[in-house]
Write a structure and sequence with these properties.
heterodimer, A: mainly beta, Methylamine Dehydrogenase, Chain H, five-stranded mixed β-sheet, four-stranded antiparallel β-sheet, 57 strands, globular, B: alpha+beta, 2 domains, 11 helices, elongated, repeat (chain B)
């Protein structure tokens, strides 16, 4: 299979689909996320390490009961890996051979772990097996000793639990509960009546065991929690029932001593049951989204809940919300599309229900979540919730327009809200709320992108299924004592033949507005609101429209249902060209004239990048991914990236992001995965993990002094720098002239490199610059060949490595001096 | 984790009067005291010194009232004919008045008989006043002349006869003792300097001038005549600054408030309008029973006195401000504990621990938070909420509907509660902002209580009322649609014309120009 080069997931954008957590003593939070295991710092919420190595989904992680600095992880690729998570190094890999669906460890079981594997030859039947971890010298080991403990178990890891001290194992499936006692080799089976009591569905959903007593707690699909005791006897067993949840109990967890039981479910309420006082309840309500997993830290001080929307909440032992770790929040349906906030360059889309999330792509963090609907969200199935459907930013990001509607089809209860960015509070503030701006669903919305200095130039256009488009303008309040000076009101209502308005788009200079009405595109003058001309490419409704930009601003591009991509010339009012292409998304780059079109044909998405002035695309990527791409957005880069290949030149100023129907965020990148994943905070974390001892304090003080000494700009440093600069300059002079950039461009850099600057501008930077120059020269001479480029990439890394080596040498002498003093100090101690 | 979000109550912009600081200020007057005079009240003047008595000129008498007295504390009645324009001197000890018999009389406040009489005019004198040096009097008369008199010698100093019609109003500059101005029915206001023989400036008002006023700074002049109030910049040689036309009958009197920030004008149209002197917009207006002839505001805006054509004097006193006193009393015993640490300003290195803000939830919000839908509905069906803030009731109903518990909240109610519910629905269902929600509520009520219809007379009556209300609304809407249809036909004819000219621009075969909105 031809894999597109450099198509990579950005970090953490994938949901922790097998979200399993483990707490080593309160410092780190480990979480399985996709093919990786992530290590978070509990105190700073940051991702400290990303441990990759599994080839498929990680299904289970467990701390090594004999060494709390080690972690076992199992994956669908059939391997168990042992990690040192402090350093992020895989210690050992055990290959089991079949898919591993869950992993359990026991303190009492010496060097063996328990996994759930599918039974050979039969589909959908699974068995719990004990795996003897072979001891060997090498890193990769083959596991041979497998012994079946329980057959006919369920695949989910929540359906098996080990009892007090590892004496017994409990497994639940449907309405059956089986307990296996290791010592007595006894298997007890219990089953609930399959007859559905009124509205109830008493199937098991999860099971946990009491840590000190012989007690099993099971959660059920009807919201009940059953506590089983006396299950040594087949007949005289007892159970009691706790009932608070109205829907499935998703997970249960006992506290360390077993005095408390935590339960969670769809209601997104964490319930704490007290063992002693007749199961009294405490609640932690409104956690935001349904709880999927509950996990406790090994010292019992913290508890964390994993939510369905890709979020981890850390909760104190006294049931107080502490902090939350969140990446890209997964919402049920991304209706808003991918929008880029011009101010923060963050990706903006639906977040929690009724919220808008601002997701920073650089840091893989949610910047903030803006509550748009401002209503209490009730977690209950079958309710008509109102949610955000459209979002638009003005060009500078000072205004934000949002549309929310309820799910009811006949009476959508529409609201258009306009938010103003308040510089003081650094957040958006509600300015105007318009109830039922249209009589039917709003299909599209856009601002006029122009200088916002002139107030009257800001215009918002909404199109609706009620066959009109509306123009909203800012109105200044005449009353000087009013609280806010501006508000929005409707200025113009346009319609065309009573067709439904589907899309709208402003030209780059804001003089023209294109509105598509089913099969027709209409172009309006934005000053007088006169209909200027219409375009049509029958048959088929218009799906997307956009204006060309910069040099191509005289073109209007549209895509139709019937699989045509058309480009009209606005000056001649004629069709310039058209192509047969089933375009799903049409996305113009705000910084260049490129337009990206994503097509969906025979179960594969393809990407085409073209300029409107010529019908031939400049970049084609067939078979981009198997999933259907729903949304795309160009995100401007902070600084133009050096891209050598002409094929990827269109990615220079902005990056293209996609969202697929499985809610995975993807991007096209020319860099390799390793480069993107270099953990920047690696060293920081090591320092942080050091225990605070008097020695470390003293050492820290000394280090501080040392750092200050290093900072002192002295003559020897300058000397070194000159020596450093000379080889680079030499290289520059030896490069053939015809591959160098113009002399005027190099002159300042060259002269600067010769100068002895007074500031302590490190030699590193200058060398770097020079290296970059020479490298660029190489690039120019290179041909556009993928394989060659990759070589060049590695060359680049090597070059960088060299420079750092040289640097360290240059300062080694000084460091040695310092070290001498260092040792003398220790001996004095 | 988020806190509970209270129910969003849809705020609708209130139509009609908007409440501003001004409305609050000018509403702070007690109900007026009405005093009957013998004839039309042509002039009210407040004494500039404590205790701010005021002289009211009506018919042939001048009454002096105290601040809260409803009976005159003193009366000057030595007039043979109607008296006009009784005005206090700056020190509040002398009073001058003109009269129908063309004689100007000067009274001492404590005496009864006039101190001086100035004779020289040949026609009734409607305007008299003191110059700001206190020793001279200016006057204007129906013989078109205006004169200046010396008080000690009771002699005429100078006479100007430049107006060509009755001189009916005027005022003296507070800044310069020699400057005064008169307004006349010949549509002009003339500015005189006592040191020169003729007028210094003439301002053309355009209507017979009924009242003139100089700002305390002396730079701006306000003239009223006809329906207009005009403001002139005197220092720029009488340039028109702004022309206000807010009355629909002749403006008869003008007055400034104590701070000089607000201008008041009274008119024959029974209104007193209050303007801001910065924006010259009407910030408030008062309504009176009959046409207003004269108007005065006491120092510190304590009292507004308005004289009317039917001889009624309308006196409004300002309400004393009670709130401040009360709150001060409350705070006194615990003063120290309150003050402790209040004035401490956190320094830069201080770590501030802020007190958790306790959020106050309304009763229905508390009930909704704990999912007690029926009780939440009860809470908003209480008369004060239901009557004064129906939007709250409707918002809670909408929230319940959203949660899917509206039906169970509405069910299981007794006769009294159903009656209450139906009254509310029948009354509010026709309000457009409530209609969508209340129609669902009405639907549910009829569904739930259908089996028991006919068991209670009161409830049946309410059902009929609801039916009636809805029937009426439907008729009304039908009528509106008819009107809309008619208007659309008219608009359609306009559109057609424009399309024709658009079609002229047709340039290419591919472009098709299709008329907008032609399907009416």
């Amino acid at each position: 299979r031809r894999c597109p080069r450099g198509l990579r997931l950005p970090r953490g954008a994938r949901a922790p689909s097998a979200g399993l957590t483990a707490f080593p003593p309160c410092r780190f939070l480990l979480c399985a996320s996709g093919d990786f295991v992530k290590v978070y710092s509990v105190s700073t919420e940051e991702t400290l390490r990303l441990m990759g190595g599994h080839a498929d989904l990680v299904t289970g992680i467990q701390l090594n009961p004999h060494n709390h600095m080690q972690l076992y992880s199992s994956s669908l690729d059939g391997t168990i890996k042992l990690w040192d998570f402090m350093d992020g190094i895989p210690i050992k890999t055990f290959t089991v051979g079949s898919k591993l669906l869950a992993l359990y460890t026991l303190a009492s079981a010496e060097d063996s772990v328990f996994v759930v594997i599918p039974k050979k030859g039969e589909r959908d039947t699974f068995q719990l097996v004990s795996v003897k971890l072979t001891k060997g010298a090498g890193q990769d080991l083959e596991v041979k000793e497998l012994s079946v403990i329980l057959a006919g178990v369920d695949a989910s890891m929540k359906h098996i639990a080990f009892g007090r001290g590892g004496e017994y194992v409990v497994s639940v499936k449907d309405v059956n509960l089986q307990v296996y006692f290791f010592k007595r080799r006894l298997l007890n089976r219990f089953s609930l009546s399959t007859v559905k009591t009124k509205g109830g569905d008493n199937r098991f959903s999860c099971v946990v065991c009491h840590p000190t007593e012989d007690c099993i707690a099971t959660g059920h699909a009807d919201g009940k929690i059953r506590l089983w005791r006396n299950f040594h006897h087949r007949k005289e067993y007892t159970y009691s029932t706790l009932h608070w949840h109205h829907d499935t109990v998703m997970d249960l967890a006992f506290s360390m001593e077993g005095t408390r039981l935590l339960s969670g479910g769809v209601e997104s309420v964490l319930v704490q049951w007290h063992n002693e006082s007749s199961w009294q309840k405490d609640f932690l309500p409104r956690l935001g989204s349904p709880i999927e997993y509950i996990s406790l830290s090994s010292d019992g001080a913290l508890c964390c809940t994993l939510h369905t929307d890709n979020r981890i909440t850390i909760i104190n032992s006294n049931l107080r919300f502490s902090r939350s770790i969140q990446g890209l929040i997964k919402s049920r349906d991304v209706k808003t599309g991918l929008v880029v906030d011009p101010r923060t360059k963050a990706l903006v889309l639906n977040g929690e229900p009724g919220h808008l999330q601002f997701y920073s792509l650089q840091s893989d963090q949610q910047l903030f979540s803006l509550d748009i609907v401002q209503r209490q969200y009730i977690h209950q199935a079958g309710l008509k919730q109102s949610d955000l459907v459209k979002v638009a930013f003005s060009a500078q990001g000072t205004w934000l327009a949002t549309v929310e509607e309820s799910e009811e089809i006949n009476d959508p209860e529409l609201q258009l809200k306009l938010w103003f960015y308040d510089e003081e509070t650094q957040s958006f503030k509600l300015n105007t709320r318009i109830n039922t701006p249209h009589d039917n669903h709003i299909t599209d919305m856009c601002f006029r992108d122009m200088d916002e200095l002139e107030h009257d130039s800001l215009i918002l256009v909404t199109t609706g299924r009620d066959c009109v488009f509306k123009v909203w303008v800012m109105v200044e309040d005449t009353d000087p004592e009013a609280q806010q000076s501006v508000s929005w009101s409707c200025d113009f209502v346009g319609s065309y033949h009573n067709y439904q308005a589907t899309n709208c788009c402003f030209s780059e200079d804001g003089s023209l507005l294109a509105v598509s009405f089913e099969e027709t595109v209409t172009v309006w003058d934005s000053l007088t609101w006169d209909l200027k001309c219409t375009f049509c490419h029958p048959p088929g409704n218009i799906r997307n429209i956009c204006f060309g930009r910069l040099t191509c601003s005289k073109y209007l591009v549209g895509a139709t249902d019937y699989g045509f991509l058309c480009c009209w010339n606005l000056l001649t009012c004629a069709l310039e060209w058209s192509a047969h292409l089933n375009v799903v998304i049409l996305q113009p780059d705000p910084l260049s004239e490129h337009i990206a079109a994503v097509s969906w044909l025979s179960k594969e998405s393809s990407l085409f990048v073209f300029k409107p002035n010529e019908p031939r695309p400049i970049y084609i990527q067939r078979n981009l991914c198997k999933e259907k791409i729903l949304l795309a957005a160009f995100v401007p880069r902070d600084e133009p990236e050096m891209i050598s290949s002409e094929r990827y030149l269109w990615l220079r100023r902005s990056q293209l992001f996609f969202l697929t129907d499985t809610q995975e965020l993807m991007t096209l990148s020319t860099k390799s995965l390793e480069e993107r994943l270099t953990p920047s905070s690696k060293q920081l974390a090591v320092e942080e993990s050091l225990p605070v001892t008097p020695f470390s304090l003293l050492l820290g003080k000394h280090r501080h002094q040392q750092a200050q000494e290093d900072k002192d700009p002295g003559k020897p440093v300058v000397h070194n720098k000159q020596e450093q600069a000379s080889p680079a300059v030499k290289e520059l002079l030896h490069t053939p002239a015809h591959v160098l950039p113009s002399a005027s461009f190099l002159c300042t850099i060259f002269i600067n490199s010769l100068l002895i600057s007074k500031e302590s501008k490190s030699a590193e930077e200058i060398v770097d610059e020079v290296e970059m120059e020479s490298e660029k020269a190489e690039d120019d001479s290179d041909e556009e060949d993928v394989t060659e480029m990759e070589q060049e990439d590695t060359g680049h890394v090597e070059l960088l490595g060299e420079t750092t080596c040289k640097l360290s040498k240059s300062q080694e002498k000084e460091l040695r001096k310092i070290r001498k003093t260092d040792y003398s100090w220790i001996s004095a101690f | 984790m988020a806190a509970y979000k209270p129910v969003v109550v849809q705020a609708c912009p209130k139509l009609g009067e908007r409440i501003t600081q001004d409305t609050l200020y000018w509403r702070g007057y007690k109900t007026p005291v009405q005093i009957k005079e013998f004839g039309a009240v042509n002039r009210i003047d407040f004494s500039p010194v404590q205790p701010y008595n005021y002289a009211v000129t009506a018919s042939s008498r001048i009454h002096i009232y105290g601040r809260y007295s409803q009976e005159p504390i003193k009366t000057f009645s030595r007039f043979r004919d109607a008296a006009y324009c009784a005005t206090y001197r700056d020190d509040g000890r002398l009073l001058v008045a003109g009269s129908e018999d063309s004689i100007i009389r000067l009274f001492d406040i404590s005496g009864k008989a006039p101190l001086r009489q100035f004779e020289g005019h040949t026609k009734p004198v409607h305007l008299v006043g003191f110059l700001s040096d206190k020793y001279r009097i200016f006057s204007g008369s129906d013989d078109y002349s205006s004169k200046l008199w010396d008080i000690p010698s009771a002699t005429e100093i100078i006479s100007y006869s430049e107006h060509t019609d009755y001189v009916r109003c005027g005022c003296a500059s507070k800044v310069n003792a020699d400057v005064f101005m008169t307004g006349s029915y010949d549509h002009t206001v003339k500015l005189f300097d006592a040191r020169t023989k003729s007028s210094v400036m003439t301002i053309e008002h355009g209507h017979p001038v009924e009242s003139v006023l100089l700002f305390p700074s002396g730079g701006l002049l306000v003239s009223a005549g006809g329906r207009y109030v005009k403001v002139w910049d005197v220092l720029k040689g009488g340039q028109l600054l702004v022309s206000l036309k807010n009355h629909h009958k002749t403006v008869t009197c003008l007055c400034l408030n104590s701070s000089g920030q607000r201008l008041l004008s009274g008119s024959l149209d029974r209104h007193v309008k209050i303007y801001s002197t910065t924006s010259y917009k009407v910030v408030h207006s008062f309504n009176y029973a009959t046409s207003i002839l004269s108007l005065a505001l006491s120092p510190e805006d304590e009292t507004i006195v308005v004289g009317m054509t039917n001889g009624v004097l309308n006196v409004k006193h300002r309400k004393p401000e009670e709130k401040n006193e009360k709150s001060q009393k409350k705070r006194q015993p615990a003063y120290r504990t309150y003050v402790k640490g209040r004035t401490y300003m956190p320094k830069q290195e201080d770590f501030c621990v802020s007190k958790p803000v306790k959020r106050v939830l309304r009763k229905y919000d508390k009930l909704l938070r704990s999912f007690q839908s029926s009780k939440a509905l009860d809470a908003v069906l209480e008369p004060p909420i239901m009557l004064h803030t129906p939007e709250v009731t409707v918002a809670v109903m909408q929230e319940l509907h959203r949660r899917g518990t509206l039906r169970s909240a509405l069910a299981g109610r007794d006769e009294k509660q159903v009656n209450l519910l139906l009254t509310f629905v029948a009354r509010r269902v026709i309000e457009p902002r409530f209609t969508p929600v209340l129609v669902t509520v009405a639907d549910m009520i009829t569904d739930i209580y259908q089996p028991v219809v006919g068991q209670s007379e009161i409830v049946d009556k309410q059902f009929l009322k609801l039916q009636e209300a809805i029937g009426k609304e439907i008729d009304y809407q039908e009528e509106l649609l008819e009107v809309l249809g008619m208007m659309d036909t008219l608009f359609a004819t306009f559109t057609k014309k424009r399309d024709i000219c658009l079609e002229g621009n047709k340039s290419n075969g591919l472009t098709e120009i299709i008329e907008t909105d032609m399907n009416y």
